[in-house]
Amino acid sequence: MFGGVASPPDVPRIVLADDHHFFREGLRGKLEADGMSVVGDAADGEEAIALSARLNPDIVIADLSMPGASGIEVVRRIGANNALVSVIILTVSADAQSALEALTAGATGYLLKETPVDEIVSSVRLVATGQTVISGSLTPLLLESVGAIERSPASRARQRAGDLTARELEVLKLIAGGADNAAIGRELSISRHTVKRYVTNIFEKLGVASRVEAAVYAVRAELV
Prior knowledge:
Helix 4 links the parallel strand 4 and strand 5 (109-112). It contains 11 helices and 6 strands. A 6-stranded parallel sheet has the order 2-1-3-4-5-6, with helices on both faces.
C-alpha cells in the first residue's frame, strides 16, 4: 500500500512492514499524530524491500517474522540497496541472539512490541536523528550473549572512563543495566533533558555511537 503525499524535508518519512493490518494502522496513527509521515506500508518482507526502493523513506519499521522475507533479510537487502535508509526491527521476540543478528546485519533499532507506544514513537524520532535504539530490557541479555567480551583491554578502557564525571559514571552504569532515559531520570532524580545531556557527553568521551556500545565499554572497563 502506498502513501502518495509528499512530506516536508524535516519530517521523517517512514514505511511500516508488519503482517498484522490493525497493528500497522495503530502505529501509523501514533506516528502521524507525532508529526511523522508514513509514506507506505507492507504486509510482507518482499513488499517492504520493494517499497523502500520505490519510495526512498528515511526509516523502515519491520517485524522480525513476516511472510516473504524475514526482518533480518529486510535489513540486509535494504542496506545493500540504500545504506541511507534506517531499519528498525519491532518485534515480540526478546531473544538476544535475534537482536544481535539484526544489529550485526545493520539494523539501527531493535524494539519490543510490548514497549509503550509513546516510547516507540520517541525511539523512532531518535533513529531519525542518527541514533541507535534498543529496548532497555534487552541490554543485559545482549551483554550476556556477547559472553566473550574481552577484558584484556580493561586498563585502556578505564583510561577513557577516567574522563567521565562521577554523575556520568552513574549514568553509564545504569545504561549498562538496561535503563532507558526515563528510568535513569527517576533513579537519579534528574530531568530527561539532563539525562540526554549526560548520555551525549558519555558517547563523545568514550567514542561510541549507541547505548549497546556504551554498555559494552562499561563491561570492558570493569565498571559493572
